[in-house]
Design goal:
The chain has 419 residues and is an alpha/beta fold. The protein has 2 domains: 155 residues, Reverse transcriptase/Diguanylate cyclase domain (Alpha-Beta Plaits, 2-Layer Sandwich); 244 residues, EAL domain (TIM Barrel, Alpha-Beta Barrel), CATH 3.20.20.450. Helix content is 45%, strand content 22%. It has 18 helices and 17 strands. The strands form 3 sheets. Strands 8-9-11-12-13-14-15-16 form an 8-stranded mixed beta barrel, surrounded by 4 helices. Strands 2-3-1-6-7 form a 5-stranded mixed sheet. A two-stranded antiparallel sheet has the order 4-5. Strand 13, helix 14 and strand 14 form a beta-alpha-beta unit. It is elongated and about 90 Å long. Bound molecules: ligand C2E and calcium ion (CA) (2 copies). The site of one calcium ion has 5 residues, from strand 13. The site of one calcium ion has 4 residues, from loops.
């Protein structure tokens, strides 16, 4: 490992240099503040690289004079990073962080010209991290700055579990990237006509086979979204799900099944999604109306955004646009008015509570009425018992889905059941 990439060596060397210069720095309770300057590369993008590369030195100089005797300020160990070492027994971490953040809200002089530099700050103290080893604190402060960068906050404080959490998350991302081509599978859950309980189509639900475990989306979807790995995983999912429904519809009954597929806002913002779906529909030979496109209400889709353009293009092509998880977010009524929506799926939490809470029943009934007046079909999600069916019919639901009608199952089991 190169010397400058190694936080431990960097800190040890810096302390040795201080001692050699006759200014030994021996904190009894060390603390580390890690500042990452121009973290998004905004200054480099707006100005020439040379000025941006001087930002580390300029930032550490400015911080050194603001913090004067209270801390040891070092440029590095990474480009554009500044490490601030202090003794939390002598100086409060809060005070030093306040001075640091205050300085970073003002322009910094770089090569004779002032620039505002976007920055993120991580703090690690012996008390919060549970260690007074400087190398551990250095790494924890950098990890905290990384969290601040990822979450868009100015300051993040390290905890004792932060390093292991970050390592686990990184390992999960690596395993997921390795798994894309082979280890993701789809399960399928029936959606029925509520009047007859006949199966009209299926929703595809993603599963990840990891070792002996079959993981549900709650275990990996957030990481897939953060890393954009959801894009290739989702494209493979579209291919598989449409391939399956083409198989099931081959030669069979007159009423063709539909396939409902979940797409996140990030997937819908991907310019490649629409041509991909168009190509797959053509290749597997099913009509666009076979594909129901589920968009969860929890992700806000901006009305003038690339995601909306994809939704509109898919609707123009003939796909069926569904608002999923209705009742869990804030946007749905606006979606119903402004997007080409044909189906709403009312979330299980509302469907469940409608059985025993009259107020929820009225809200759900009103949603069914609005949907009906807009020509939108209403699906009740998470139906677990036969007792719920009469009430759901009365409320105006046309479709239903839930464990009572069928649990999500692998394609082989569905095909067996259809024979
Ligand atoms: P969702 O779209 O609301 O899917 C329905 C979830 O409810 C599924 O969980 C399903 O297994 C579960 N469920 C269905 N009927 C019942 C019931 O009667 N009772 C109960 N308690 N649960 C029921 P699952 O498979 O864990 O999926 C969770 C979420 O992950 C999905 O919620 C969807 O938002 C997301 N997801 C699943 N597959 C994909 C995918 O391929 N792409 C994307 N972007 N998201 C997906
Ligand atoms: Ca769904
Ligand atoms: Ca749902």
């Amino acid at each position: 490992m190169s010397r400058m990439n190694c936080a431990e060596r960097f800190l040890a060397d810096a302390l040795a240099e201080q001692a050699a210069a006759g200014r030994p720095f021996r904190p009894s309770s060390p603390g580390v503040i890690m500042v990452v300057l121009d973290h998004s590369g905004g200054l480099a993008a707006a100005r020439e690289f040379s000025r941006a590369s001087a930002v580390g030195a300029a930032g550490s100089e400015a911080l050194r004079s603001a913090l004067d005797e209270r801390a040891l300020v070092l440029a590095g160990p990474l480009d554009r990073a500044v490490v601030i070492l202090f003794d939390s027994e002598l100086h409060s971490a809060d005070d030093l962080v306040t001075v640091t953040l205050d300085l970073l809200t003002r322009p910094i002089a770089i090569e004779g010209e002032e620039h505002f530099v976007q920055s993120r700050v991580g703090l690690a103290t012996a008390t919060n991290v549970g260690s007074d080893a400087l190398d551990v604190l250095g790494r924890a402060a950098f990890a905290a700055a990384h969290v601040a960068m990822e979450t868009g906050v100015q300051l993040h404080e390290a905890t004792s579990s932060l390093l292991s959490e970050i390592r686990l998350a990184a390992d999960l991302r690596t395993s997921m990237a390795r798994a894309i081509d082979e280890d993701f599978e789809l399960h399928y859950q029936p959606i029925v006509d509520l009047a007859t309980t006949r199966i009209l189509g299926y929703e595809s639900l993603l599963r990840w086979r990891s070792g002996d475990d079959l993981l549900a989306p709650a275990a990996f979807l957030a990481a897939a979204e953060e890393t954009s790995l959801i894009l290739p995983i989702g494209r493979a999912g579209t291919r598989t799900a449409l391939g399956k429904v083409a198989e099931w519809n081959e030669g069979g009954s007159v009423d063709k099944l539909f396939m409902s597929v979940n797409y996140s806002a990030r997937q819908l913002s991907d310019a490649l999604l629409f041509p991909h779906i168009e190509r797959v529909l053509e290749r597997v030979g099913v009509s666009p109306s076979t594909l129901w496109v589920e968009i969860t209400e929890r992700h806000l889709v901006d009305l003038a955004s690339p995601a909306t353009r994809t939704i509109e293009a898919l609707a123009d092509l003939g796909c069926v646009i569904c608002v999923d998880d209705l009742g869990t977010g804030f946007a749905a009524l606006r979606y119903l008015a402004d997007l080409p929506v044909s189906v709403v799926k009312v979330d299980r939490s509302l469907v469940c509570s409608a059985s025993d809470a009259a107020s929820i029943r009225s809200v759900v009934g009103a949603v069914c009425d609005i949907s009906h007046s807009l020509g939108i079909m209403a699906v009740a999600e998470g139906v677990e018992s036969e007792n719920q069916i009469p009430m759901l019919r009365d409320l105006g639901f046309t479709h239903a889905q839930g464990y009572y009608f069928g649990r999500p199952a692998p394609a082989a089991e569905i095909a067996e059941g259809r024979e």
